[in-house]
Amino acid sequence: MRIWENRYNRDVQRLNLALRMIAHKARTNMICEWTGLPYERVRKLCRTYAPTHSNGGKDRNRGPSPHLIGRFLGSARGRLEAAALVSVCLALDVVPAKPVANARREVPGVVRGERLCKAFEMYSTLVPDSTVTIEQVALLVLAVAEGVEVGVGHCDTCRAVILHDPYGIGQWHCTHCSADIIEERKKATAS
Questions:
Q1: DSSP letter string over the chain?
Q2: 29 in Cβ contact with 65 (< 8 Å)
Q3: What whole-number distance in Å separates Cα of residue 61 and Cα of residue 39?
Q4: Most buried residue, 94, 104, 141, 154, by CB count within 10 Å?
Q5: pTM of the prediction?
Q6: Is the pLDDT of residue 55 over 80?
């Protein structure tokens, strides 16, 4: 195999990932970050392929990408969705095994980007009424990879994957087990 064939295959892989992210309505900045393609190249791809890839004729998202993890941690449903997303991302090796100091620089890449798209597609198939975007999944992956804002653990009762405050102290329970514990406490105090 010649040297130029490796470069060609790598470029095709980057372009295919970019098209896949365009189909998921990712913003240009995110596509550049995960594929390594220049901004103008991504903009040209969007102008050329976005009309054929768009879902129902809707435009892609514009403006800055989401940067606050609070969307997931602010409600019980958000925590459940985040835990499910992290489970899928862990299974597909999107999240690194060990915390990374600068996840925004170290984690994005073509191989992980393909896995990220696969995780997002799998989750969208499993939970069709979810409103989570691929950019929110990428934000969650980066936050978990850094381990500063949010950490991954297991429920003390059922061993399900949960997200928690990495500096938190005490027992960790998933939403389902927490509801059961509250019910048991209510019954105990009522007796």
A1: --HHHHHHHHHHHHHHHHHHHHHTT--HHHHHHHH---HHHHHHHHHHHHHHHSSTTPPPP-SSPP--THHHHSSHHHHHHHHHHHHHHHHTT-S-SS--TTHHHHS--HHHHHHHHHHHHHHHHH-TT----HHHHHHHHHHHHHTSS-EEEE-TTT--EEEE-TT--S----HHHHHHHHHHHHHHHH-
A2: yes
A3: 16
A4: 94
A5: 0.81
A6: no
pLDDT given at position 111? 94
Where are the domains positioned within the chain? 3-53, 70-190
> For 86-100, how does the pLDDT look when each residue is reduced to its tens digit (9 = 90+)?
999 999 999 988 888
pLDDT above 90 for 17: yes
Report the 10 Å Cβ neighbour count for 112: 23
- The 10s digit of each residue's pLDDT in 145-160 is 998 888 888 888 888 8
Residue (of 110, 147, 139) closest to 31 by Cα position? 110
96 contact partners, CB below 8 Å, separation of at least 6: 103, 106, 107, 145
